[in-house]
Design goal:
heterodimer, A: 137 residues, alpha+beta, Sufe protein. Chain: A, 6 helices, 3 strands, 52% helix, B: 408 residues, alpha/beta, Aspartate Aminotransferase, domain 1, Aspartate Aminotransferase, domain 2, seven-stranded mixed beta sheet, four-stranded antiparallel beta sheet, 37% helix, globular
Amino acid sequence: MNTLDEAKAAVVEEFSMFDEWLDKYEYLIELGKSLEVFPVELKTEEHLIKGCQSRVWLDTKVEGGRLFFRADSDAIITKGIISLLIQVYNGRTAAEIVADDFGFVEQIGLRANLSPTRANGLNSMIETIRREAEKNV
Amino acid sequence: MKIDTVRSDFPQLRETVYGKPLVYLDNAATSLRPLSVVREWEDMSLKYNSNLHRAVHKTAVDATERYESTRAAVAAFVGAEFPEEIVFTSGTTQSINLLASCLEGSGFFSSGDEILVAESEHHSNIVPWQLVSMRKGLKIKVIPVNSHGEILVETLSELLTPRTKLCCIAHISNVLGIVNPIREIVDICHANGTLVLVDGAQGIVHADVNIREAGCDFYAFSGHKIYAAPGTGVLYGKKALLENLPPYMGGGEMIESVSWEKTTFAPVPGRFEAGTQNISGTPTLVPAIQTCKILRDREIAKEQEDIKAFMAKSLTSNPDITLYGNPEDPAKKIPLYSFSVAGVHHEDLALILDKMGIAVRSGQMCAEPLMNRFGVTGMLRASFAPYNTLKEAEYFIESLNKAIKMLK
């Protein structure tokens, strides 16, 4: 498995391949579509991330000291964004996640390109992942 | 008049986003500003800036004259009987809140009284009435809309009771884009002794408003949707009704005389305009009204009709699209289209369209009860202004189809 830094660098590189924002969104849409199917019984209030404009559910499992995430959303681009986060943080230890600054999100320019309400949603997703990690440190 | 001539007066139409020409189809949220409005704002700020109604110096007199002649221009534009019937506010929302507060303060409502509110209202014509209802123990009854989005006027006879004091209804819904039969509703309500408030935020843009002909008691609208400066707005009220209302806020020139024993208030409309008015903004309503008149030119109206025909055909011929607000009589529809696409989230569509240079609105559009009525969490809305072209409508539909293909 690659390191957290390698995973982040890979995402940054992937994003830099697209010049146009429309293409970056197309990539996010593809990521959203390829996200593993989320069990419908997990779409509960408890798994809902508060503060997103569209509904986002996140489920966390801990195995051998590592965190594994599953997620879903009504909106495919939101699903793509959470998929991006999962791609980077899946299988990391709680300590690794807590110590991370999530700065790669700025690097790909995603936050700056979202509407303020969307950016809040992204922050909520990051906060939820961080909180889940904190619970398991 | 050629549409290109009109468009050249709106500099924002020449802007680009993400390297693409901006196609602005969020006009129901706010319109773009013409140069004439900006110049008036500039003149008021750089040449005539002075506080109103107070000082005797020349600049103050000139500024006051420009502000008060705006009142007369608005009165003439909407067909009010007297300029004093025009109260300047910060927008439709403040107009309605002012009315709600002053009606309450006048003792107009007693516990157990009823207010009718249409199902298709904007939150700004729902929540102020809910606030009054909570304080005064009133009952709000809802006038339903049918599946086309048309108000079921025939339900009024059942809904109206001797306790119904007020009926609150939009001239045109900001989601459905249907012109409501105001005159008919006013006649039915007045026969019951019920006053009528019309939320004209969209109506003032797309309909020839003649308040005296409509017969309504109050009419509220915003300046920023008819090209004027943001933070400007109007509450029209019949003079005899306004005269029975107490002040809204205290302070500034809303008084006649102030003493510890007894303060008396200015006559209407001054008593509703406490504090320093929007000196620079309100006079922009004059060039804004002029713009409204120019935009009613025959050639521009023809382009609007072409847009309407094209949009209606494009949106209703796609089986994946559900259009909300689709009256049987197309003459009742303004070029405002709220819809959903099967299997595609409205927010995703708005984000992709944005990247194609198109500004549209997505979400609940401040009309959550109406979203519930149609069983959706939100919609996508494209709303046209008279400066939009058929070419832009065609680009919108082409881009929409591309976005749907990407997202499906």
